[in-house]
Automatic annotation (TrEMBL):
Originating species: Azospirillum palustre
Family from the record: Belongs to the thioredoxin family. DsbA subfamily.
Protein name (record): Disulfide bond formation protein DsbA
SUPFAM superfamilies per UniProt: Thioredoxin-like
Any Pfam family: Thioredoxin_4
Domain Thioredoxin: start-end pairs: 20-212
Stretch forming the signal peptide: 1-28
Keywords: Signal
C-alpha cells in the first residue's frame, strides 16, 4: 500500500507558498535581462488524448512526488496505450505542487509548447531524483528545458510571471476545494476522487462503467 502525503503537510505548505509567490522568491530579473514573452498557452488546460473522448480523468500530481513518478513511469504507459490512444478516455493533468521545487518544475513544463508538455513531464518524472535532489534544481531544470527547446531566458520569464505562478498555485487550491484532494497522486473519475497510485487494473475498473455501451 502506497503511503500518501498528509493533509497536514498540504496545509503547512500552502501558506508559505502563497507568501513566497507574493513576495517574489523567484529572483527578479531586470527588464533588459528577460526579453522572452510568456506563452499565452502557459495557463491553458493540459489534456492527454482526444479532448472529445467520452470519459474525463483528472489527475492531480506534483513533479516532486515519488508516488506520482511511480504512476507515470510504470502505470501510465499502459493506460495511454489501452485507454487514451484508443479514444476511450482523456486525462486532464492539473498541478498540485507540494513544495517550491514542484512549482519550479511545473513552471518549466508549462513554459514549453503544448505538444511538448507531456513528453517533458515524462522526462521530469523519469529523472526526478536527478533534479529534485540537486544542489540547484533550477539549473538542472533549465538544462532539461533546453532539451525541449526552451531557452533559459524564456524559462526565467515564466518564473517571473506572476499570472503563471498564481495559476499553478490556484490549481492546487481548486483541487483541495472542488475534489477534496489532500495527497498526490489523486485521480477524479466519474466525480469520485481516488488517492494514491492506481494499478492499471484498478484504473481500468474505475473507468469502464463510464464508457459508452458498444
Amino acid at each position: 500500500m502506497f503511503a500518501s502525503r498528509t493533509l497536514r503537510a498540504a496545509v503547512l505548505f500552502a501558506a508559505p507558498l502563497a507568501v513566497w509567490l507574493v513576495a517574489g522568491a523567484v529572483p527578479a530579473q531586470t527588464p533588459t535581462a528577460v526579453t522572452a514573452a510568456v506563452p499565452v498557452t502557459a495557463t491553458m488546460p493540459r489534456v492527454l488524448g482526444d479532448p472529445q473522448a467520452p470519459v474525463e480523468v483528472i489527475e492531480y500530481a506534483s513533479l516532486t512526488c515519488h508516488h506520482c513518478a511511480t504512476f507515470h513511469n510504470t502505470v501510465l504507459p499502459q493506460v495511454k496505450q489501452e485507454l487514451v490512444d484508443t479514444g476511450k478516455i482523456r486525462i486532464v493533468y492539473r498541478d498540485f505542487p507540494l513544495d517550491r521545487s514542484g512549482v519550479e518544475a511545473a513552471t518549466l513544463a508549462r513554459c514549453v509548447t503544448p505538444e511538448r508538455y507531456f513528453p517533458l513531464l515524462s522526462v521530469l518524472f523519469a529523472k526526478q531524483d536527478d533534479w529534485s535532489h540537486a544542489k540547484d534544481p533550477v539549473e538542472v531544470l533549465a538544462r532539461l528545458g533546453a532539451l525541449a527547446g526552451l531557452s533559459r531566458t524564456a524559462y526565467d520569464a515564466c518564473r517571473n510571471d506572476q499570472a503563471l505562478q498564481d495559476a499553478i498555485l490556484q490549481s492546487r487550491l481548486d483541487g483541495e476545494r472542488l475534489h477534496s484532494v489532500n495527497s498526490t497522486p489523486s485521480f477524479v473519475i466519474g466525480g469520485k476522487t481516488y488517492k494514491g497510485v492506481l494499478p492499471f487494473e484498478d484504473f481500468k475498473k474505475a473507468v469502464t462503467p463510464l464508457l459508452p455501451a458498444p
